[in-house]
Amino acid sequence: MPHDHHDHLSPSGHPYRPDQDGPLTYWQAMEIAIRELMVEKGIVTAAQVREQIDAMDARSPAQGAAFVARFWTDPAFRDLALRDGSNACAEMGFEVGPMRLIALENTSRLHNVVVCTLCSCYPRNLLGLPPDWYKSRAYRSRTVREPRKVLAEFGTILPEGVELRVHDSTADMRYIVVPRRPDGTDGWQPDRLAKLVTRDSMIGVAEALPATEAPA
Amino acid sequence: MADFAPGARVRVKAMMPPGHVRTPGYLRGRVGEVERVLGPFPNPEQLAYRRKGDPLDLYRVRFPLGDLWDRDDADTLEAEIYAHWLEPA
C-alpha cells in the first residue's frame, strides 16, 4: 500500500473529511427550523426541497463547454458573447440566471483567470457547482496577489510576454473564460470541440485539452 | 449618465465604512482605469439590510497588478466597483 504510513489519507491519497459530530451552528439550526416550518405550513414540500438539491447537484460544466465551442465556431455568436454574455446564453437556450455574464477571451497575448475574493461568486448556470478549491481562502487571496504562481501550481505556466489578467468577481457580473482553441481542431464540429473544454479552462487556471486528448 | 467614461482614471476611495460592502480592502486607495460601465444595479450595501437598493452605476476598473502590491509587474487586475466608491484620479 502506498499510503501505509499516512492513515489520515484515503486510498486515493486524499485526506478524509472529519466527521461533523459537533453541535449545529446558529445558521444550520436556523436553516432546519425554517425549512421544517415551511414544510409544516405547506409552502414547500420536502420532496420539492430534495428536487431542488438534486437540480443543483446535477448542474455540470457542459453548458459552459457548449458556449465555448460555439464561440470558437460561430463568429456572429462570438461577437454577441463579447458584447452581451447573458444574451448569448439566452440565444443558446440556457438559463441566464440573475447575474449578468461577461465572456473573457484568451488570446496569444492575454490570459484571463477568475476569482471572487469576497466570497465565491461563480457562473453556476453554466459551470455547475464551484470546486472546493475555488472557495478556499488560499485561492481567493493568492490569485490576486501572485496569480502566476497559482496558475503554475495548476500546471499552467504562462510565457513572458503573455499578459495575465485577474478578474475579481466582486459584484453583479459573472465570468466565463473562453480558452484558446486547441491546435489541430480545424473543421471540428462544436459537439466534438466541447469535449476539450474543461471546467478549469473556463475558470482560467488551465488551458483547454489538446486535440490529442479528446475524450472518446 | 455615468460619472466616468471608459478610459477615465479613477481612485477607489480609501474609506472603511462598517457593514456589508463589496469593495475589496486591497483596492482601496488604488488608482485604475475604467474598462466599461455597467448597471445601474441596486446598491448592495442597502440590499444586505433588506432595504431598497438605490440604483448605482457599476464600473469595471482595471488596475496594474504591480501598483496593487508595490512591485514591477506588467499583469493586470479588473474588479467591479460601484459608483459611490470612485473619485477622479
UniProtKB/TrEMBL annotation, chain A:
Assigned keywords, A-Z: Lyase, Metal-binding
Claim: Metal-binding is one of the keywords in the record: yes
InterPro entries registered for this protein in UniProt: CN_Hdrase_a/SCN_Hdrase_g_sf, CN_Hdrtase_a/SCN_Hdrlase_g
Classification via SUPFAM superfamilies: Nitrile hydratase alpha chain
Identification of the protein by name: Cobalt-containing nitrile hydratase subunit alpha
Domain Nitrile hydratase alpha/Thiocyanate hydrolase gamma positions: 27-206
UniProt keyword annotation of Lyase present: yes
GO molecular function: nitrile hydratase activity; transition metal ion binding
UniProtKB/TrEMBL annotation, chain B:
Domain Nitrile hydratase beta subunit: 2-88
Pfam families reported for this sequence: NHase_beta_C (PF02211)
InterPro entries cross-referenced by the UniProt entry: CN_hydtase_beta_dom_C (IPR024690), Elect_transpt_acc-like_dom_sf (IPR008990)
SUPFAM superfamilies: Electron transport accessory proteins
Keyword Iron-sulfur: no
EC id: 4.2.1.84
UniProt keyword terms in alphabetical order: Lyase
Protein name, as recorded: NthB protein
Organism: Jannaschia aquimarina
Gene of this entry: nthB
